[in-house]
Amino acid sequence: MAQSKQAGRAPKRAHKVSCEECYFRVNLLCALDLSEPCATFRPNEAQLRPPQQLRFVFRQERRTRAAWAFPTAQEQAALHA
After folding, report:
1. Per-residue model confidence as pLDDT tens digits over 35-71
2. C-alpha–C-alpha distance, residues 39 and 25, integer Å
3. How far is CA 23 from the centre of its chain?
4. What is the percent of the chain where pLDDT is above 70?
5. pTM to 2 decimals?
6. CA-CA-CA-CA torsion for 74, 78, 80, 81, nearest 10 degrees?
7. Contact 22, 44 (CB under 8 A)
8. 12, 30, 32, 79 - which has most CB atoms within 10 Å?
9. How far apart are CA 76 and CA 68, in angstroms?
10. Is 22 helix (H, G, I), strand (E, B) or coil?
11. Which residues contact 27 (CB under 8 A, 6 or more apart)?
12. Average pLDDT of the residues in 4-18
């Protein structure tokens, strides 16, 4: 049986966030008293900056003509004549 590529490595674990690291809690803007972070959690380091979006990359232009074409009617007739 083939082993997976990550057989010798430990899986990366996600950093567990807490309300104490939330921008709203640090700046005394949070009105919630929850035991775990809510859906509006934002890391304090980000200072409410939105995450960086992916860059749009244009593809190269596609060919306007096919690399090959079907023979014309005259060429087909010449082949079978």
Report:
1. 888 888 888 888 888 778 888 888 877 767 667 778 8
2. 13
3. 25
4. 81
5. 0.46
6. 120
7. yes
8. 30
9. 15
10. strand
11. 44
12. 67
What angle (nearest 5°) sits at the alpha carbon of residue 74, between those of residues 72 and 76? Answer: 70
Q: What is the pLDDT of residue 29?
A: 92
Angle at 72 between CA 68 and CA 75, to 5 degrees: 105
Amino acid at 73: A
Q: Residues 37, 19: contact at Cβ < 8 Å?
A: yes
Residue 43 β-bridge partners: 22
Q: Left, alpha or beta for 28 (phi > 0: left; psi -120 to 50: alpha)?
A: left
Contact of 42 with 48, CB cutoff 8 Å: yes
